[in-house]
């Protein structure tokens, strides 16, 4: 009778050990550095935890769902890439069901683009939408079709590319936020925009080439402008500086002459006879010594031929 009792104890011990191992095995879970984990208790959300070794209630009472929140995911539209990056157009498979669109001027255009996003709310991402990728694709296509349908084909292919990318990102984010999707749109990039193949495509290629030539000429003109205008401005500033210097010199000389004249006038007013005589003498000295020769004529002589003296003598 003792053998069965030992067997029961052994079985109980084994069961206890197994239960403890099960509890230990189901009480811990790890979260990668690029992830966050959503924890459910009997199927109801209780918390979100970050990277590291985490604990939970064992035996399936709580379950964890790890979600990549630090990884930027990429979806391609109009083509399916075959390279490692998942975005290259080289060797890609074309999907015209996504890329063919009607423009605002009733032309057909082939638009290929990518959407990059990351998960910023793991709980909302897991439980707000059932088919996540399909929903992202449907919203992205709807927004892009609307933007392309409001613009002429030439603007879509040239000047409005950046604006389309910006508006698409903004409108997609608003829609995803309204649905409580739990994702953040990182970027929307247009990859390739082309008209349908054939004569239309050839015509648009000619237009694009003409636009590129026009931009080249504009850039060359701007470069020439940037070279010549500063030189002309420098020359003009030099001429202005020289004119201002000449004007200052003339003004200073005129002011000096005026001051000198005023000084002489003041002296003249003090003693008019002496000043008059001094001025007369100074003037005569200047006249008689101007060229080194002197010619004197007696006013009382008549029919006299004046003889020019040599060496200052008569």
Automatic annotation (TrEMBL):
SUPFAM superfamilies given for it? Band 7/SPFH domain
Task: Name the GO cellular-component terms.
Answer: membrane
Could you list this entry's UniProt keywords, alphabetically sorted: Hydrolase, Membrane, Protease, Transmembrane, Transmembrane helix
Protein's cellular compartments: Membrane
Query: Where is the Band domain positioned along the sequence?
Result: 26-208
The membrane topology term of the UniProt record is: Single-pass membrane protein
A Gene Ontology molecular function term for this protein is: peptidase activity
Taxonomically, the superkingdom here is: Bacteria
InterPro entries this protein is in?
Band7/mec-2_domain, Band_7, Band_7/SPFH_dom_sf, HflK
Q: Offer one example of a GO biological process linked to this entry.
A: proteolysis
Q: Which family does it belong to?
A: Belongs to the band 7/mec-2 family. HflK subfamily.
* Self-association and partners: HflC and HflK may interact to form a multimeric complex.
Any idea what job this protein has? HflC and HflK could encode or regulate a protease.
Q: What is this protein called?
A: Protein HflK
Species the sequence originates in: Candidatus Ornithospirochaeta stercoravium
